[in-house]
Design a protein that fits this description.
- The protein is α+β, with helices and mostly antiparallel strands and 157 residues long.
- It has 3 helices and 7 strands.
- Strands 1-3-4-7-6-5 form a 6-stranded antiparallel β-barrel.
- The longest helix is centred in the C-terminal third of the chain and has 30 residues.
- It is globular.
- The mean pLDDT is 91.
């Protein structure tokens, strides 16, 4: 098992298609690879005021699309379909555990993004920022599509 620091989490969408855009105020966190089919375990330490919202999702066992930033805030977020599985109240904090499936595209989109930008005639000076912006858009589109397919069929491609 590999363990990494979880530095940021944002809930994006629930299994009913509701847009959430809900950042979780993390005091600390871990994300642990279960080393089996992109399965991950997330542990989040949050202040009590943030626990009310997460408690709702825990009680309902709602499947959520989340973006998790691992190790450094400078890293791109990873898409995770997760369900909260447990909560533990501490003095003025709560820990929440979620189990999730990392939504990873089968193919790297780098060539597709570059071909698209070149086809649009993006100038060389603007290529780098346009590339990263387009890559993020493509990742978010894939994440939502994969999550919706996971909700409907139980798997994603």
């Amino acid at each position: 098992m590999k363990t990494f620091r979880l530095v940021q989490v944002r809930l994006v969408q629930d299994e009913y298609g509701n847009e959430l855009n809900l950042p979780i105020n993390l005091l600390d966190g871990l994300i642990i690879s279960k080393e089996h089919d992109n399965e991950w375990l997330l542990e989040m330490l949050v202040p009590t005021e943030a626990a009310v919202t997460l408690h709702h999702y825990l009680n309902k066992r709602i499947l959520l699309l989340a973006e998790a930033v691992i190790t450094s805030r400078a890293n791109q977020p990873a898409a995770v379909a997760l369900t909260f599985t447990s909560e533990r109240a501490l003095n003025d904090h709560h820990t929440f555990v979620a189990e999730g499936l990392m939504l990873i595209p089968k193919q790297d989109a780098t060539k597709q993004v570059l071909d698209s930008l070149v086809g649009e005639g993006v100038a060389k000076a603007n290529l780098k920022p346009a590339f990263f912006e387009k890559k993020v858009e493509l990742q978010q589109s894939f994440s939502r599509s994969a999550f919706n397919q996971l909700v409907k069929t139980g798997s994603y491609e």
